[in-house]
Amino acid sequence: MKYGIIDFLTLVGSLGFFLYGMKIMSESLQKVAGDKMRSILAKMTSNPVKGVLTGLLITGIIQSSSATTVMVVSFVNAGLLSLIESIGVIMGANIGTTVTAWLISLLGFKINISIISLPLIGLGFPLLFSSKKNRKSWGEFIIGFALLFIGLDFLKNSVPDINSHPEILSFLSNYTSHGFWSFLLFLTIGTLLTMIIQSSSATMALTLVMCNNGWISFDIAAAMVLGENIGTTITANLAAAVANVSAKRAARAHFLFNLMGVIWVSLFFPFFLRLIADFVLNTGGSSPYNDPHAIPIALSIFHSAFNIANTLLFIWFTKTIAFIVTKMVPQKEDSEEFRLQYIQAGLLSTPELSIYQAKKEILIFTQRVEKTFEMVEEMFNEKNEKKFYKLYDKIEKYEGISDRMEVEIANYLTKISEDELSPLGSKRIKAQLTIVSELESVADCCYNLAKTMLRKKDSKVVLNETLSSNIRKMMGLVKESIIEMQKNVEHGYLNINIVRAVELEQNINNYRDRLKKDHLKDIEKKQYDYKTGVIYSDLFSECEKCADYVINVSEAVEEINKN
User: Fold this and answer.
1) Which residues contact 282 (CB under 8 A, 6 or more apart)?
2) Measured between alpha carbons, how far is 474 from 470 in angstroms, rounded to an integer?
3) With b meaning 16 or more CB within 10 Å and e meaning fewer, what string describes 1-13?
4) 346's torsion region: left (phi>0), alpha (psi -120 to 50) or beta?
5) What is the pTM of this model?
6) Number of separate domains in the chain
7) Same structural domain for residues 85 and 51?
8) Which terminal CB of the chain, N or C, has fewer other CB atoms within 10 Å?
């Protein structure tokens, strides 16, 4: 039999067709249920059992364990899930991914679903032109579902005809009869194929097609399936490569969980396969060892049984797995260095999720600004010269960090805005862009205050106790307004009470006016010299200016809630 480069490319193209259909179907469902999935993941993971059910549900819906685990890594990175909660979801995702194998086994080989694929495309195509985003996503899902099974049909037809040309099996037969070494070889092949294709579902489909055509035996196919369970973890680990420590740990937990599962099943591999074969025979089917057409169903049972058993076994060791991966990925003490914590893993699957991720990063920005202002207060009261200059250097460093945070968060928000957004999403993006700009201005004010205090130090200007007390009180009011701003950023997307923020701003303005009036009187009375007066005036004026930027942040959040 001749099997040339064109035939091979046809096989690869068929696999690509299948993958493309899977991608469209998965992404469209994520668009339909994106915000709901976030809510499910955030609320239904209070214990490992709920986490497993949540992971199973979401993966069963979107038909991609890789998408679920990448989503989980992103949510851990964004602080939506804890490490222990994420492990339960990952376990469930492994069970959910077996749905694909059952769809292919029951529909792909029993029913020629590709016959109705074109009518399905005809049904979904008009929906693509709908002005409603949700309806458009459903159209994409229907088309993706149809393309998936057209690709599967092409895949079945592009695999060499083994029955007519058994000689093509000759090179495989050299590697299938070496016992445990054959098991290791095909486990490795399954791992590498999944790592390359980046989809365990696609590799599983390819394995099922090869089994159905008699290309590989049941035990070899089962070994490949175990390898696919290891290979599928590479996607989440790649996503976590640029994420924070917690996300890296979640990705390692996925790898460790699947690897431990493969290890214990390997010890009982022949016994496990015999149980599956006996179950198929007892339910009226043919033995997968004798009938190639019985292998897809038997393999689907094996795939499900392995993942369910693995989850039932290791769900009791969730905390142990978390402990191990915490040791594998230790926390680095690098809090003073600039690194975004929540948006390093890139855009999430939907704009709504990405906006929420940006919100978490902006909250960190507000906390950093608050810390910067605390250092300004500390610097004002510091008597030790060495500590004074050290604080100045830290404030200067934090101001530079704030500049870079503004740029990177703004760039991220700009990328989100390039996608289709709901009216509420557009309002949130606009508010967030305003917020990061105002926060950077607050950081600038902190740096200006530090420079004024440095000028005071170098000029040997000493403020008397009354002037110092006035500045401390002004700084206290500003600090209180920053804390209120932080609360509004954290909780303000659904509700916000701006009354307290406005009240604080008014108090600061009134206090500034009073200090300014008293200052002019004191200058006239020559209570202190002109140089001291300039430093004093610059300090309370800069504090008031800082408060103006702070109230702008709360007002930007309030705009989201206006109709």
Assistant:
1) none
2) 6
3) eeeeeeeeebbee
4) left
5) 0.53
6) 2
7) yes
8) C
State how far the Cα of 560 lies from the Cα of 250, in Å rounded to an integer: 33
Question: For residue 214, what are the contacts with CB-CB under 8 A and spacing of at least 6?
Answer: 162, 163, 292
Shared domain for 184 and 92, answered yes or no, is: yes
Q: Which domain holds residue 273?
A: 5-328
Q: Which residues contact 241 (CB under 8 A, 6 or more apart)?
A: 248
Residue 291 sits in the same domain as residue 361: no
d(C-alpha 85, C-alpha 67), whole Å: 17
Most confident of 134-148, 328-342, 498-512: 498-512
Which CATH number covers residue 434? 1.20.58.220
What residues contact 65, with CB distance under 8 A and at least 6 apart? 59, 93, 94, 96, 97, 200, 201, 232
Give the per-residue pLDDT at 424.
78
State whether 358 and 485 are in the same domain.
yes
For residue 410, being part of any structural domain is answered with yes
pLDDT per residue as tens digits for the range 134-176: 788 888 878 887 786 677 667 656 655 544 444 444 445 455 5
Q: What six digits make up the tokens of 135?
A: 């309806």
Q: Is the pLDDT of residue 444 over 70?
A: yes
pLDDT, one tens digit per residue, over 211-252 is 766 677 788 888 888 888 888 777 667 656 656 677 788 888
**Same domain, residue pair 322 and 405:** no
Rounded Cα–Cα distance for residues 350 and 337 (Å): 30
What is the predicted pLDDT for the residue at 334? 45
Q: Indicate whether 360 and 315 sit together in one domain.
A: no
Positive/negative CA dihedral, 352, 356, 359, 361: negative
Least confident of 24-38, 319-333, 455-469, 475-489: 24-38
